[in-house]
Amino acid sequence: MEAGKVSAGKPLQPNHGNKLSSGLPGSLVPHSTRKGKDKKLLNTPSPLSLFKAPIRSKATCQSKSHIVFLKTHKTASSTILNILYRYGESRNLTFALPLNKHSQLFYPFSFASHFVEGVSSRSVREFHIMCNHMRFRKSEVAKVMPADTFYFSILRHPVAMMESIFIYYKSIQAFHKTHSLDDFLDNGSQNYNSSVTNNHYAHNILSFDFGFDNNIRAGAEDLEERASMSIAAIERDFQLILISEYFDESMVLLKHALCWSLDDVVSFKLNSRSERTRHPLSPNTAEKIKGWNALDWKIYLHFNTTFWHKVDSLVGREQMKREVSQLRELQTKLASTCLKDGGAVDPSQIKDAALKPFQYGAAVIQGYNLNPHIDTQTKTKCQRLITPELQYTDLLYTQQFPELAAKHRQANRMAALQHQRIDRTGALGKVWVRESHHRQFIRHKLPNLKNQKASTSALLTHTAAGNRTKMP
């Protein structure tokens, strides 16, 4: 890294040692600090027993299956969504999926219970997991989910998150005319209009996702009061807040909180950018981001501290080190079993279109290729680990609502046919207009021909046949 540069959003350090070394390839250490270059793993199939490694934190604890995950933006939340999808699907749990096969719960509108498929129709008796993007509103979520639901979410350092958002959402009005992130930050008051659709991505996006007013910056008289109120609301509504910079530690903490196994929280990094689309930020830029996203910064500082308090009270530092090591060992073994070449690749290199992640903005979102030398049962489990969010959501919707999914497929086919008819009609119309202009041109150029109509007809016939006669 160049002198005078810092990585976007350098993680805060807890009071005790938490920098755990990793023997994993960089692509499989989702968001912990990495050292060294990625190493390819051999495509040596491992036993299916790798998927069956239950390690419970307490012999008496009861696994939780009523869960709400507030999926925040650019925080490794797609990886957590995949964990929840796999857990729920393997146990035949019911997801609170978006209405009409949408991929999000009508974000950025504040959540309403009728956004969930099966609520208005009362076709679902019990929902277990809600985890798609939404703008949080507890009173409406509580109408859908049982009273004993476990609520959790994840935060990311606002500096790193802002760098990612600027690349991913470069097309929004607040960003698209700016040449760089510094350019935007230096002219934020001119570039940012909160009333413009999707501009919320550019300002205190974490606060917005949690349902708060995001239009505040450093120096505001009520910043401290609003930050305190926001933090209090999060602590009231959520039992656990994870930190993206310590992803593996977060997964171990989540495992203990839910009384799950390490196998339940193992993952591969999903919806992640290629390194070539990441840009280091100067310390000056980082400070400007903290000022612009001052509310997010204060929320992050608070929960970065409480995260380590949770580790101490729920797991303990030494136990955390042991379980993170076990989790990374399991990830490494799964990578050697599941992945061709052992790591993530650019979308152009992904062989199976069903495993290719959605590409948006200026980011290059990577994915994976399956190891071809695995048995059918193992292949299915490996495939779920690397299935992108949109494809997995579609799969679960089809499983839960097969009749509605069939109607959507039929509607899509009819819409495609209609577009084809429109395209054909449009093409015929263009031919008619072109020929009409052609006739007018000929009449204008050949006014003295006695049999102008016949000549025009003959010339059109020759032109359509592709003769070599040049126009006068």
Automatic annotation (TrEMBL):
Record organism: Scomber scombrus (Atlantic mackerel)
Spans traversing the lipid bilayer: none
Pfam families noted in UniProt: Gal-3-0_sulfotr
Stretch list, region Disordered: 1-45
SUPFAM superfamilies linked: P-loop containing nucleoside triphosphate hydrolases
Name of the protein: Galactose-3-O-sulfotransferase 2 isoform X1
Intracellular or extracellular location(s): Golgi apparatus membrane
GO MF terms, alphabetically ordered: galactosylceramide sulfotransferase activity
InterPro entries, A to Z: Gal-3-0_sulfotransfrase, P-loop_NTPase
Gene Ontology cellular component list: Golgi membrane
GO BP of this protein: glycolipid biosynthetic process
Lipid bilayer topology: Single-pass type II membrane protein
Keyword entries, A-Z: Glycoprotein, Golgi apparatus, Membrane, Signal-anchor, Transferase, Transmembrane, Transmembrane helix
Top-level taxon in the UniProt lineage: Eukaryota
Primary localization class, coarse: Golgi
PANTHER family: GALACTOSE-3-O-SULFOTRANSFERASE (PTHR14647), GALACTOSE-3-O-SULFOTRANSFERASE 2 (PTHR14647:SF62)
Entry similarity comment: Belongs to the galactose-3-O-sulfotransferase family.
